[in-house]
Amino acid sequence: MSEFHDTQLKIAHICAEIAGNDKTLMGLWDLMDTNVEEQGKFDHVTSLVSSSLDEVSIKGCLALEVIEQTEVEVERLNALKASKMKELVLKRQNELEAIYRDVHMDIDTDAARQTLINLIESGNVELSDLLSSMDNQIANAKELALSRKEVLDKVEKWKHAYEEEKWLEDYEKDENRYSAGRGAHKNLKRAEKARILVSKIPFMVENLTSKVKGWELERDMSFQYNKSAATMSPFVHILQEHRRLQEQMAAEQEAIYGSRPKKPLGQSTTNNTMIGTPIGRRGATPLGHHHAPSTGKERRESRYHNVAPINYVALSKDDHSVSRGA
């Protein structure tokens, strides 16, 4: 009687392992993408899930062979579960990283992956919970990416204008640009269009700045951009100093020759160039929301301006008060 009771307990344990805690044999098969043929071998076992212990005894499922087969199958699937779990989770992580990468958001992918792997290998996390969490992150990332689209479109337009500005400066330095060489006519046309585009840079920068500030205020977070495009902030001090020297030279020239009409914004000259970008233009560093101050007060305020972290393009919360004086 005692031996029969022990056998019943063993069967109950197996049934609990199959059906309990939402880790059913069928669930493991589904996770492992087990084909129907292999699942069919255990039809007599899966019927245990909906059966009581008495029904199991009546059906004759207490055979030692059935018990051993079930134990082996469950152990095999549990052994595969960790690797399959890692595969599924990392697949979702790849999707998440792709979303962030497409909208120029810099994240520590190595740290995120290692955290996930540690969770999986610890065995202290439910697969369904982890996958659900990853799905929520992906949904939030897609929503965030969509909200950034308008700003990123303006960033791309500014970058194009900036590249055309650099090309125009190099073109205007070329003493042979008017020669009848090959491609000269195309370059003249490009230069004409570039001058028009460059003249719009101040407006583009103001518009971009406004959009980023609005985005930040709406979401109470900084507008992050990838590191490679946000490295202009270290030039802020150089830009300000260069503008100061320009103003000093202009004052000296005015004292000698009298005042002259100011040159329209957006018109490039070879004497107004540093690192390929006209410095006197407000569009010099739009991604960092910095521009060269044009008054003594603004220069004094700019000394206390906090330079944004290298992977952020927008003003930090402390920058808003300073930027209003710009």
UniProtKB/TrEMBL annotation:
Swiss-Prot/TrEMBL GO biological process terms: microtubule cytoskeleton organization
Keywords in alphabetical order: Cytoplasm, Cytoskeleton, Microtubule
Location(s) in or outside the cell: Cytoplasm, Cytoskeleton
Coiled coil stretches, renumbered: none
Pfam families: MAP65_ASE1 (PF03999)
Keyword ATP-binding: no
Molecular function per GO: microtubule binding
Keyword flag Transferase: no
Region: Disordered, residue numbers: 282-301
Family indicated by similarity: Belongs to the MAP65/ASE1 family.
Record's protein name: Uncharacterized protein
Species annotation: Linum tenue
